[in-house]
Amino acid sequence: MKNSKTASIPLRSEVAPEDCWNLSRLYTEHDEWLKDLEVFRKLPDKAELYKDKLAEGVDIFAGFLDFYTQAGLAAERLGYYAFLRYAEDAGDSDNQARYGMIMQAESQFSAAFSFVDPEIQSIPDSQIQTYLKDPRISPYKIMLEKLLRFKPHILSSAEEKLLALQSEAAAAPHKAFEALTDVDMDFGSLETKDGSLPLSQGSFSTFLINPDRSLREKAFKQFYANYSGHRNVLASLYTGSVQQDVYRARVRNFPSARAAALFPDNVPESVYDNLIEAVHAGFPALHRYYALRKRLLGVEELRHYDVYVPLVGSISTNYTYEEAVAVVIDALRPLGSEYTDALGSGLLGNWVDRYENKGKRSGAFSAGSYLGEPYILMNYKKTVLRDLFTLAHEGGHSMHSWYSVRNNPFQHYNYTIFEAEVASTFNEQFVASYLLDRAESTEMKAYIIGKQIDDIIATIFRQTMFAEYEMKVHALCEEGSPLTVDSLRKAYRGLLEAYFGPAMVLEEESDLEGLRIPHFYRAFYVYKYATGLSASLALSKKVMEGDSSDRDTYLAFLKSGGSKFPIDSLKLAGVDMASPQPVKDAVGIFSNLLDTFEALIG
After folding, report:
1. From 88, 119, 160, 394, active-site residue
2. For residue 509, is it within any domain?
3. Taking the alpha carbons of 141, 561, 416, 170 in that order, is the dihedral positive or negative?
4. By C-alpha distance, which of 83, 196, 62 is closest to 135?
5. Is the pLDDT of residue 3 over 50?
6. Which residues contact 270 (CB under 8 A, 6 or more apart)?
7. Which residues face 195 on adjacent strands?
8. What's the number of CA atoms in the CB half-sphere (13 Å) around residue 597?
9. How far apart are CA 404 and CA 562, in angstroms?
10. What's the pLDDT tens digit per position in 401-448?
11. How far apart are CA 586 and CA 421, in angstroms?
12. Cα angle, residue 371 at apex, residues 366 and 373 outer, rounded to 5°
């Protein structure tokens, strides 16, 4: 069975060119890339031309900014080409070598120019203001203003050097966590009707959606038995990561690790607090969902291994790639012809690498760059309806990049993660509405609404629970309470009980989940998923129910790119994420969807 499946996956060389992305906007051949790489490799030698000289006058400062921007463009072009070629076939030795070469070259460039931010921030305010009046500096004003916000948190050059030298050691907890969980841990295998199948980090979620409850239970117990056996090491690694967060925040004079993490995006801590408060207010609806799940599954006790199995079975669909594009474009017509013409041309043209091949990266992503197309990697399957939604999702990212590139200079075209998930999930709402309007069966309607419910639970409720856990753990560390296996598990179990509610019977191992989430090693990041979907739900409703002015304000948000802080750019679109209202409204949408779902399935 396994061999026949593997044999059906084509080699990269066997994939039709029209089904592959066309990277010629970046490079047409490897030799051209190598030639530019050699030029880029020499750029670190120019560091001495600018180091300790940026305060000597506007001429050298303007010349440096122009040089630095061109170097950034070159690095992005080289890097994106190497990354995309590696993503299309990681087994190809040329792709491996190319990817390794640019990573090494970028590391050397970053090391040579590590002086830049501290040196700019050390220039007296009066001198910087004089610089900003010069027309040559005008294109860099936004970039410089964002950089100069960090000035109160910059240390002396000697202290900055010590922090830089410590950065590799600071990454040790995360690296050790990845090595332990991805490489060293052996989860064994499970006997299924298809034979013995391996249990792994990647396959665990597949077992949890299996309709065989006894298999789900075995997978859950066997998986977490491994984590239990390493619980002290895992707790120590996560504690080390939290202590690093607290240390860096204190060294840089931030009141807390959370404040330090939110500062770069200029997001008030009240946004984080409002998110948690609004989600807690939605607990009655969430608990009603789990009670419904318990009833529909027909179990006496809802267990942790029961919460991911689909309540609506797989829907039989058959959308070819071209038909899926047609659905996406038709669904998004309210955004106007410029949007749909550009997206349709890209999806049917040279943006997308459509199908699976050996060595290709799994899943999907959009990779927008300033000089290339906003490329999309897919592993599209025509019988999987979720892949149609994924195409719309990645298309939203790509059109965000498309508009941003056309309305901003390179130095501030790149938008933040806080904004990124808005444009993608926004498109999914339009596709869901489109398919619901045309659904011919109750089963199809229930499937689509069930997907929307699952997305809100996974993205708003679950990610907020993660965010609340990070907040609680860092607060314990900051107040001097020791972080131990028991204290970490207790904090996580309390949140599981609160979020799942009375319908759930937790396993003894359930709270070990808090020791296995990789995102926790990048603290205070996951809340952005919850705010992003909340914003997109508000905006999609606004555009669907509004007029052309509502569409235009949304497009203005896409065009703003990285020219504003995320809260300000979303205000352009008509949603105020500094207010708790968008999250409250998202919880209300969840409750309404749940009402509809219950009515459909009886």
Report:
1. 394
2. no
3. negative
4. 62
5. no
6. 578
7. 192
8. 22
9. 8
10. 999 999 999 999 999 988 999 999 999 999 999 999 999 899 999 999
11. 15
12. 40
Q: Please give the Cα distance from 190 to 219 (Å, whole number).
A: 7
64: containing domain: 2-170
Per-residue b or e along 25-49, where b marks 16 or more CB atoms closer than 10 Å to that residue's CB: bbbeeeeebeeebeebeebbebeee
18 or 168, higher pLDDT: 18
> Quick check: pTM over 0.70?
yes
Would you say residue 312 lies in a domain?
A: no
Helices (H), 230-302: 231-251, 257-262, 269-281, 283-297
Look at residue 127 and tell me if it is in a domain.
yes
* Mean pLDDT score across all residues of the chain: 94
136 phi/psi in degrees, rounded to 5: -70, -25
Tell me if 259 sits within 8 A of 269, measured CB to CB. yes
* Domain CATH for 53: 1.20.140.70
Per residue in 447-486, pLDDT tens?
A: 999 999 999 999 999 999 999 999 999 999 999 999 999 9
Determine the pLDDT at residue 228. Answer: 97
Contact 484, 238 (CB under 8 A): no
pLDDT of residue 4: 39
The secondary structure of residue 156, as a DSSP letter, is -
Q: How many CB atoms lie within 10 A of CB 595?
A: 13
Contact, 417 vs 528, CB < 8 A?
yes
User: What are phi and psi for residue 381, nearest 5 degrees?
Assistant: -130, 125
Of 524, 510, 516, whose CA–CA distance to 463 is shortest? 524
pLDDT value for 602? 72
CB atoms within 10 A of CB 314: 11
Nearest to 512 by CA among 498, 493, 532, 535: 493
What is the band of 157 on the pLDDT scale with cuts at 50, 70, 90? low
Residue 251 pLDDT > 90: yes
DSSP per-residue codes, 85-124: HHHH-TT-HHHHHHHHHHHHHHHHHHHHTTTHHHHHHHS-
Tokens of 571: 């205000």
Neighbours of 303 (CB within 10 A): 19
Is residue 352 scored above 80 in pLDDT?
A: yes
- Would residue 394 show up in a list of annotated catalytic residues for this protein? yes
* Angle subtended by helix axes 269-281 and 462-478, to nearest 10: 130
Long-range CB contact pairs, 283-286, < 8 A, 24+: 283/498, 283/499, 283/501, 285/587, 285/590, 285/591, 285/594, 286/457, 286/461, 286/499, 286/501, 286/590
Domain count, the chain: 1
Q: Mean of the pLDDT values across residues 566-581?
A: 93
Structure token pair of residue 441:
């069966």
401 in any annotated domain:
no
Phi/psi zone of residue 192: left (φ > 0), alpha (ψ -120 to 50 degrees), beta? beta
The DSSP 8-state label assigned to residue 186 in this structure reads -
In the chain, pLDDT over 90 holds for what percent of residues?
86
Are 458 and 230 within 8 A, CB to CB? no
